[in-house]
Design goal:
The chain is an alpha/beta fold. About 50% of the residues lie in helices and about 10% in strands.
Amino acid sequence: MTEHLNRLTPRQIVFELDQYIIGQNDAKRNVAIALRNRWRRMNSPEDIQKEIIPNNILMIGATGVGKTEIARRLAKIADAPFVKVEASKFTEVGYVGRDVESMVRDLVEQAVGMVRTQKKEEVKIKAEQAVEDIILDALIPPIHGNNAVKPRPENTESNGTIPEDDNELNQRTRERFREKIRNGDLDERKIEIEIQQNQSPSVGMIGGAMDDISMMNIQEMIGNMVPRRGKKRKVTVGEAKKLLLDEEAGKLIDMDEVKLEAIQKAENLGIIFIDEIDKVASSRSGGGSGPDVSREGVQRDLLPIVEGSAVNTKHGVINTDHILFIAAGAFHVAKPSDLIPELQGRFPIRVELNSLTESDFYQILKTPKNALTKQYEAMMEAEGVDLQFEDGALREMARIAFEVNSEVENIGARRLQTVMSLLLNDFMFDIPDVIGPDSSIVVTADMVSEKLSHMVKNRDLSQFIL
């Protein structure tokens, strides 16, 4: 589990983040240190490991400046389970809504999915062989067992057995067809296969309400009691490969081992990103009634999870002591100091993210691996159309996005999505009917000014606010 983290030094982590996120160096440095500290803790003496707790981070910054993207990319770099939740969606215990423990259960589900995928990849070769055998049985039944082919009288030995030559011929034929299956030569041929499916009945509730974890346990228990039944389907060989591979791989992995490993992965590497934390901050002058009571209640429900506690999930008990929590909020109205002191203390690292400048917008369009310009180029390339952006066009788009953000609500880098959509939608509509394959589109500064001038001139820009 720690080998991958060993290669990720703080500088290497920042370098990886730089491939996708422009600026915000302070935030990148802090999350890089937090990630490296996980490896340092797991390689510390055992008697001190449990005492080293993560330095949870509070990110403060306007929408669209990269808070969520930093956390999401950090999780991908670390190959860690990641869950993003919005604090405003939680409600105080006793009210209708999601309880805060659900985010930990979601994290475990993510971890189980990651480990299951990894385990299935490890047994993929064996699973593919099993799938080939099933398809072969449908195409050429083997000469044994229940599928035995009745021998012709003239080919029957005195003891009633099938001559060895027929068995060998059948085996050679199956091997030739196995090669055809692997090469895709038979992908369009129709065969009949049996697909396993759970016949789990729906669970009806009688009486009082039941919490999520109890419901999940009951459904899983009933699902395990009900036998899996096969359903015969007529599909192509190509479809059969896809349908059967996941099923056969699942038979080869030990789900108890998957769950155990997933719990450990979530405990030691899991990252929970709590967005809109400012929405549950209570005003100290609120008088202690009304909605402030519920907001403070959500904070108090969050507190034990962030401090470290045991949470029951359908896969087992998970301890949250070493999960990294990253909270974020714009804090336009509330202040970080409006959070209850106990919760403030659990987020000792505070990072203020900078508002994006015109130069940042230009770099966002030009530099990242997943830049919007590169996304549109890839989509048009799929249609056989070559899309190119002149440098002056990128600068003009950056100028317009920055100007609109300054005059209307600032939605950060998301404004560029509006700009790109308005600029290229006519082309996207005309491809491929009017603009066919092998065409070329060059976006110039003049084209940007002409198509987007109304965005700047029109002071009622509500239609452009995402």
